[in-house]
Amino acid sequence: MHRFPAFVPRGEFRYDKVIHWYPGHMANARVKMEKRFKFIDFVVEVRDARAPFTSASYQFTRQIPKDIKRLIVLNKVDLVSEKLAHRAQEIIEDAGFPCVLTSASTNRGTAKVHEWAVKHIRPDYKTIGIWVMVCGVPNAGKSTVINSLKRLAFAAAKYGRPGNQIVKDVRRTESAVGILPGVTKDVGFFQISNKPRIYCIDTPGITLKKTIDPETNLKMAALGSILDYWAGEMYIADYVLHQLNCRRLYRYVDVLGLTGPSDDIKYISSFTAQTLKMVRPDKVPDPLAGCRFFLQLFRGGHLGKVCLDQLPDSASMPRRHDDHGREEPPAPWDIFEYPKSTRALE
User: Fold this and answer.
1) CATH code for the domain of 37
2) Alpha-carbon span 160 to 301, nearest angstrom
3) CA–CA separation, 55 vs 344, rounded Å?
4) Residue 143 in domain
5) How far apart are CA 53 and CA 89, in angstroms?
6) Binding site: residue ranges?
7) Which of 9, 27, 120, 264 could form a disulfide with 245 if both were Cys (CB 3.0 to 4.6 A apart)?
8) Has residue 232 been placed in a domain?
9) Alpha-carbon distance 252 to 242, whole Å?
10) What is the C-alpha to C-alpha distance for residues 342 and 127, in angstroms, rounded to an integer?
């Protein structure tokens, strides 16, 4: 029996706008990234495990030459259930792409990226080393993955055999990491290790240049890949609340001290602001501050482990070529099933 059996969530979410966020630095970075294809050995595409298909950088990865290998990293797996994380990995690997699961903030799983590179990549010249481009949507954890790889290399050098040269002449400089999307605004590079010699090209997060599907970028906004004020904090939080209620994930009731679940995000935001004494300069409770706190709790995994993409089973997955090249819905799944096209599996 579910908690609060008498509560019936609203049947559908009303989308009142299509969010677009593609600032100039993304367009400039994409041009620079495509120019570097001839210098790299493989690409690591970092996705958010809470939206393993929606967070695909398919508009960029389609431009990668066929002779360059690609490894897909589903990051932040600590924020989704283990079952769903492995199901997403299975779907991606069934489509023909190697995929690893990581939680880079805790260094979990990132060693698999290094192992895959050493096993599958043979650089033309050992003195030049392996060059990898790390790409993905904003706030998926690209810089965190790079930093984790570097920390693991330094740890291996520290606890390895005496005299090893794993990180000889490698600087400890790390890629900038922040809570807000868009911290990395230009293309840069970092040396990960000396033996084997591996370099990472860090790139800015790039969103979809254009989409007519109102849910795609709203999901990304919910995960923090689009600036909150750009999409509207209350609009994002309302979507998150709808997703939690539809999944009957009512942990927010206990965390916020509510008497029961609700479909009214304005009420929840006001209640939170009043409870936590979040007030405006005129001493009136600030619902917007309560709304931001609600989003902060969700993104930190404090309201439950949630995957915003509905993962289809093997029987409902179409063949890859059935939908090849389609940029937008309609799709072979119904509205509550994802992915809406196989673009994330190309």
Assistant:
1) 3.40.50.300
2) 35
3) 8
4) yes
5) 11
6) 75-78, 139-144, 205
7) 9
8) yes
9) 12
10) 39
The helix/strand/coil state of 47 is strand
Q: Which domain holds residue 170?
A: 24-202
d(CA 137, CA 144): 13
Convert the pLDDT of each residue in 124-174 to its tens digit: 777 889 999 999 999 999 999 999 999 999 999 988 888 888 888 888 877
pTM: 0.87
Do both 126 and 251 map to the same domain? no
Q: In what order do the strands lie in the sheet with 130-136?
A: 99-101, 69-75, 42-48, 130-136, 198-202, 188-193
Q: 24 burial class (0-12, 13-18, 19+ CB within 10 angstroms)?
A: exposed
- Are 143 and 278 within one domain? no
Residue 131 — φ and ψ, nearest 5°?
Answer: -115, 125
Does residue 166 share a domain with residue 108? yes
Query: How is residue 30 written in tokens?
Result: 């994409």
Tell me how crowded residue 261 is: count the other CB atoms within 10 A of its CB.
20
Amino acid residing at 130: I
For 136, residues 6+ apart whose C-beta sits below 8 A from its C-beta are 45, 46, 47, 55, 57, 142, 205, 206
Q: Report yes or no: 326 and 336 within 8 Å, Cβ to Cβ.
A: no
Binding site feature residues for GTP: 75-78, 139-144, 205
- C-alpha to C-alpha distance for 210 and 198, rounded to whole angstroms: 34
Residue type, 200: C
pLDDT digits (tens, 9 = 90+) for 29-49: 888 898 999 999 999 999 999
Antiparallel, parallel or unpaired: β 188-193 and 130-136: unpaired
